[in-house]
Each structure stands twice: as C-alpha cells, then as structure tokens.
# Entry
Amino acid sequence: MRHHDGGGVSALEPQLVHTSQEPDQRRPPRRSVRTHRVENRAMGAGRNGLPQTATASSLSMRAEPASRKRGSVGIAVRDRSPKRLQSSEPRNCFAGVEDHAVAADGLSSELALRNHQCPDMGAVKPCDREQDQQDVRERIGDYFPSIHDELGQLCLTRIPRSKIYDMALVCKKWKAYLLGPELYKARRLQSVREDWVFILGVTNVDKKWRAYRPTVNDWVVIPPCPSDFVFDSCDKESMVAGLNLMVLGQGGDGYVVWRFDTIRSAWSTTPKMHTDRCLFGSASFGQFAYFAGGTSRGSLLKSVERYNSETDSWELLPDMNTERKCCSGFVMDGKFHVIGGQQQSVILNSGEVYDPAMKTWNLIEDMWPKKFVPSTQVAPPLVAVLNNQLYGINIIENMLMSYDKEKNQWQLLEKVPHRAENTNGWGLGFKAVGDELFVIGGARGVGLFLPQIHAYSPKAEGSERWRFVTDLHLPTSGFIYNCAIMSG
# Structure
C-alpha cells in the first residue's frame, strides 16, 4: 500500500467492499511482474512494455483488456511514469494504446537528445554541458558553502598573516591552500600588502626580534631563535624571502642560516650556502633573496647566489665584475643591483646590475659618488627603492636624495630627522614600507640615539612629507643592529 502521495488504488478501498466469493471489480487481473517482463522481452518489447517497432496505427488495432470489456470500473490514478512524460492531469489506468505510443515517441526523442543525435540531421558534435555542470558543482562550496571556489580563495588571501596558521586548522581544504605555495602568489597578484618591519635592537641581551605592523600600528614579538651562544653574540645579517625572515651568521658549528616562517611561527635552518659570507649586498624580490659579494674567511668575493623560499634551495648566479664588501643591494626595474662598497682599502663608487635574461652583469660607473662617502670606515650605502624609484641618504650632509636613472645623478631633497654621520652610517635603518620611506633609529647627537621611526612621503607637500610613526618598543637605545622589511 502506498500512502505517501494520496493516490493509487489503495485510496479507494473503503468505498469498494467485496467478499471472497465475489470477483474483484476494482481493476483487471494482474499478472506477476516477472512473468510480464519475460513475455515483453520475448516479444521484443521496449520501455513501457511496447514493441520497439510498434507504431500508433498498429497499436490501435490491439484488443482491449478482457476486464475492460466486462465493464470494469475505470479508476483515475496519478501517473507514475517518469516525470518527463507526466502531464498535469490525472491519467486513466485504462488509457488507450495511442497514449502509450505517443509516450514512446516522446521517450525516443528524449533519448536521441541525450545521445546527441538528431533524426533529420544525423550525429551532431558532442555537448559537454553535463561535464561542465559537474565541474561547476565541484568548484562550488569547497572553501565556503554556496560560494564559488575562486571567490573563496580571494577571501582566504586576505587573512592577516599572523592568523593564517590558526585559520588553516579549520579544514583540510583551507590548510592545503593557506600553507601551500599558492597563497603568497595569490597575495601578490591581488596586491595584498601587509608590511612587517623586523628589527633587532640588542644582540647578546635579548635575542628576540620584534616586528612593527604599520597597518594596525602594533608590535609583534617573534619567538626566540633556537640558536647557540656563538650565533647570538656575533654580528648577524638579515633578509626576507617570500614570507620568511632570514638571519645569517656564524654559529658554534660553523656558518648557519636561520629562517623564521611567519605563517607557522617557527624557526628552522636552511641548507648551506654555496659560499659562507658576511658584509654582502642583498635584496628581496618575491620568493627570492639575492646575496652578492662580501667576505669569506678573509677573502673578498664577487660570487652571487640566490635563495628560493618555495623550494628551500640555493642557486649560483654569474659572478659580478668586481669583488666588493660592505656594499648594498636592491631591486629596481625587476633587476638586482649592487652599489658601492669597498675593495680592500679602496672605496668603490660604481654599481652593477644583473640582467636575468642575458645572465650578465653590467657595470655602472659613478653610481654612488665619493662625495657621499666619508674617508673613514663606513657602513654600506643607505638606499631604498620605493615605487621603482631609488632613494638614498647622504650621511655627510644628512640629506635625503633621489636617483635619476637616465642621467645617473642624485638630487638632494630634504634633511633627515635622524642622524647617521656620528656613526658613519651604522645603527640606522632606511627602508621602503608601503608608499613611504622609513627612517628607523639612528643618532641625534654624539653618543645619543633616537629610538623612533619617522616616515617620508614623496606624494605629500611641504612639512607634511615627514611624519612621526612610533617609538621603538625595543630594549635598545635606538641603535639598530638588523632591520628587514616583509611585504605581501
């Protein structure tokens, strides 16, 4: 008995009462389903129990059921055929064979469409509609319910960097995307900027790095690096590759490169560099960090290598034209540049640019004029690239400068609120952050340091170009040992 739709023969049973001696007048005698199907197959029947070659005219000549001839009561029941053949009106259970013929023709037409066949035109080009619909279903709801996956990924790319690892615990799909290499690429393509200013103010007292986040104006304390006493006590140099902070220096067991993953908030060591070095020129560009020149066990270097944060590997690049130490590096016009430095006791004022297409270095004479360099031992040139424009600080005159690439000349701009001449350029951070130039720490007089950050905006006018950013919430007087910028 069926009760779910309110139709069928069983719904009329209370109105038609009969005894076991009287014949059942409700419907014609039924054969077993199995016997009925076997007979239909023997007759070559198709769907609906009709011969596959039957036509409407031939079917109309078939005799009506015996029970119909005896005057059986016709009962209106709901059509239980496939929905594509149903009509909105109830059908008589003794419908004429013409109706079945029409239904068979309709079914044949639909089967032809599903098989992409047309009786008049023959075979047509297969349609990928069903496959496309399946692909769409697969691309919806994997990251967020009822949201297309591409839109879901855009939402995930805007999660703050400090919260990414926690959000990756939501599900496996989020974890695979947030902790995979595609996240950093997507953030760069969508111009998602989240600048972190990494600063190390004290070396042997407090080895914790701090990171200033300008967008939210707060400080993040980085977990201490699990390095040894030798590494903590010696001079170190820092760089950024992708979403990783790199700290290089001499450890108890030799030269070591530590890497801090800002997503997992964990320290680890990288494979060995091809050549251990210090006092090198370096620059960050996407997932890569470039290292050029420097010294190694007392020898000047002109070799260059590049670290890939996605593959955690080092790659040798062609050598520079000149050995140099205490030089600076930067990326401008998509090319790695090295500027200034020293060669033994000779001050170098030239620069070099690496052409990645030709894999060659081109020398740029007088790129860092000697008038900018004191005669005493000096720090690497203070340079930074903002919106593909090179800026520098003349520590002798304490002036901010901009570089003209076409003329290979520097133009003086404005006085810098921080001073570096008393320390020959050491202890001052000069970095591009967002759309501004940050001047970090430095001196404000003989033996006096300034534990503050000021920013210069080239787009502003007059006195509004310089602004106070924040105090250095560090255990330091203002002398900056290491500084690195992470964007993206």
